[in-house]
Amino acid sequence: MKWLKLFVVLPLIGLLVITNIYEDPATIFHDESKGMAEAVVDGQKVYSVTGNLNEREFKRNLIMLMPDETDTIAVGPSLMMCINKNIVGTEDYINLGVSASNIYDILAQFGLMDIYGKKFKRVILCLDPYSFDESLFDANREKNASLMPYSEYMIKKINGENPSPVDIDNNKDVKVEIEQAFSVSYFQSSWNQVVLNGTYLMDDNRRWGIVTEGFDGSKPFYDPDGSITFDSGLQSNDVNDVVEQCSSYNIDYQFGRDRHISEYGKDIYEKLIKYLTDQGIEVELFLCPLAPSLWDRIDAEKEHFAILYEVTDFAEAVSGTYDLKITGSYNPYELGIKDEDFYDPRHVRREVMGDFFDFCSKD
Question: Which of 36, 172, 270, 291 is most exposed, with minimal Cβ within 10 Å?
Fold first, then answer.
C-alpha cells in the first residue's frame, strides 16, 4: 500500500516542481532581464515572451550597460514609460521607468547610476502620489528588497554622508528556489500561466524575443531608448473602454483616501532634487494627468483625496525653490486633454503626448 501511495504521489510532486520551474511566474528560476538589456543597448526592440519580465532587474541591467554619459533620462512609474526620444526631442535619451515605481525604485536607480559612474545632464522625474503615501512604504521596501542597498546608498548620499560600497550577493537564493519549487501556491500561479500562455519559449529556448517584421504586437516591447510600446490590446481601447475603466478604478488605494502626503517623502524628494541641481543637472518634474472621467470621481470627493492636491503643492514649492520646469498637471482640464487621449484611466496615448507636453529642455 505504501508503494502504491508513493507511486501516485511522486508523479504529482514531479508535475508540481517541473511546472513551477518551467512556468516561473515570478522569474525566480529564469532571469531574462540581462539578455534583453544587452539587446536594447545594441539597438534592438525586445519583448518578454513569458510576459512576466522583472522590470526592475531589466532597468538595473540597462543602467549598468548604458553609456557613461547621457543627455537626458526619464525616471518614474509606467505613466511615463512610453515617453520616447522623439517626444523628448533628443537622440541621446534613456527611459528608466518601471511599472508601479515608488520612492525606493527611484532612489535605487540614482544610486546605481552613481555607483557605476553614469552621468546625465537632465532628468525628467515623474511625481506620482503613490510615492508619497507613507502607508505603502513598508510594502514597497519589501517589494524592492534586492535593490534596497542601492536605495540606502543614495539616501546617505543626499543626506551628505559618505556611503559604504554596496556589496550585494547576486547569486541566486537557493532557499527561496527550493521553497518555491515545491510551493502549492506557486503552482497555482504557474498553472494559471499554463492555461493562459501554453508553451511560449522561442526556438532557441529564450524567454524573450526581438521585434522583427511580422511581429503581431500582442506583447508590449522595449524600444532602443528604453521606452515601451504598449501591446496592441491596450492600444485598441477606445473612449468607451476608458470611461468604463474609470468608473471602476480603485481610487481609494491609488490615491490614498483620507491620507496626506508623507513628510518623509517630501524630505527625501527635495533632498534628491537639491543633490541633483547642486551638480548642475537640470530637473524637470512631470505630473501625468488623470483621464477626465477619473478626475471627475476624485474631484467630487476631493476632501477625501488631499494627497493628490498636496503633491501638486509640493511640486510647485520645489519648482520655485530650485527653478524647476513643471510639465503637465494631474487635472486634465488644465491641459485640455480628453478621455479618448488615454489608453486607460492613467496612461496617456503616446501619439498625442507631443500635443499636450513639452519635454524639451527649458534652456
Answer: 172
